[in-house]
What does this fold into?
Amino acid sequence: MPEGKDELFKKLSDSVVYMDESLTVQLSNEVIDKGYDAYEAIEKGLSDGMERAGKLFEEEEYFIPELLMCSDAMYAGLDILKPHIKTKESGEKHRVVIGVVEGDTHDIGKNLVKIMLETSGFDVIDLGRDIPPQKFVETAKEVEAKIIALSTLMTTTMEGMSEVIRILNTLGIRESFKVMVGGGPISQSFADKIGADGYSINAAEAVRLARRLVGGAA
Amino acid sequence: MPFERMTPIERLTAYNKGESIDRLPCVPIVGNTAARVIGVKVSEFKGNGRLLAKAHIEAYRLFKYDIIRIFTDLYTQAEAMGAKVHYPADETAYLGAPAISNVSQIDGIEPADPYKDGNLPHHLEAMKRAVESVGKEVTVTGALTCPFTNASFLIGSENLVRLTIRNPEAVHKLCEVSLETSLRYAKAIMDAGCTPSLTDAMSSATVISPKQFEEFSYPYLKRLIGYIHSRGKSVTLHICGKTNKIWELMAEAGADCISIDNDADLYEAKIKVGDRVRLMGNVRPSEVMLQGSSDDVRKAVIECVKKAYDNPKGYIVASGCSLPTETPFQNIQAMLDTVMEIGYPVNFEKLEAQTLTKC
It folds into this structure.
């Protein structure tokens, strides 16, 4: 009996959850061979798998190594499926500019947030790590981002976050962007203090926050 | 304010024996804030053991806390093994680039010589000077980065955590060579009259699972701690972030005292492992110590003491992690003052009443 579309998507999702990169690649090729819709396969297969992985992470069943392995599988599948997406279906995506603030090179947290945001349909521009405040603002203006997402693990570099907001204020463009912050030493009270629009404690929560923020801004 | 009657060493010695003391031991974990005490830039510590010693001696004299910890950043051993460390003019150093970028280069990594490589000789000099100057009254420790965390600086943390699943053997190789450096450095620290103070940030359950901890951190910690014990020193082990699921293993590895971050609960720790290890922590370094008022510090200290003062193996009032460089002096002072005010033996009812009137 031929395998149905939904069963294949479910298998694709499972292959991401179980960190099986080669199986994800094989199944993604199968999607194309059978002429199924690539966008739907990403949504119901890869993204669904990543969402389930994120849930396991929140439940402390999965930790950072597992989540990274899942994302490796997801990206491998994405490389195959992406070229087959019909452009009209990809639609307008909300842009997010993300990076680790200057003076800090810890980027696992930022990378996880990036992965989860991309999985959830955001268009993420990743500046990398050790990024000067000015660079966040320039890029956000240039690409017409909706959100600027700032990360740091170190108490010594938290100040860079408020600097970004100060620059936005000085330029009179604070209202054009939502600023979200996160990382080890960051808290809701710090976010409030520097006038950020939101704080999230982990990558899964960051997605919910980003959705709320663009919902409000749209 | 009552006067302190004891030197830190007298206090800890008496506390260990269950004898009477003037106040609970207290360790605001001062790191590069010491630079602010003597008015120098953080980067001036690089290659200057004399200055690093001076800063920590003066910081101790200013606040009179119970343990000195010579520390600038977590990367000293990795730097001595080839990692690139970036030194901003006046902020804590950070990892510029790991020593290697892929698994094929692992065999090229050599354990460090603490008397020759990187900044290790200068840190050793600082420890020696501090011991000579104030070692009779206060315990001087030297920060030592544990094998798994050091391994993450050798190949990059994201790389390393992926390898825990993809290539466990490579992780063990990196931990093994890191352990060799740790053992050599621990020996040098103890030969300088100092005690190693263990930090294993990446082994946190915020990063790896308790199962991965058991496989990749625990065996190396156990060997490292075993060696330090063989030299007659007790061991404090600090792991940041979430740790409640690995406390048992931290104790099993031989730690005499575990220093826990504010993502962990002192009361829960007391119930779970308090009969096996001393607890240290966990006033919030950033929210309370850096950004809070003296009164916030006071409240936080009282909360911690209420949770852990009767820990069977004892309790040291401390910050959850190293203090941020710009932590206001008044907040560090407030921590010590509050501990003095609480006094000893701790009167729980009195503390309870204080919290109520304060809130």
In short: The beta strands of chain B are 26-27, 67-70, 84-86, 94-97, 139-145, 195-199, 236-239, 257-260, 278-283, 315-319. Chain B has one domain: 8-358.
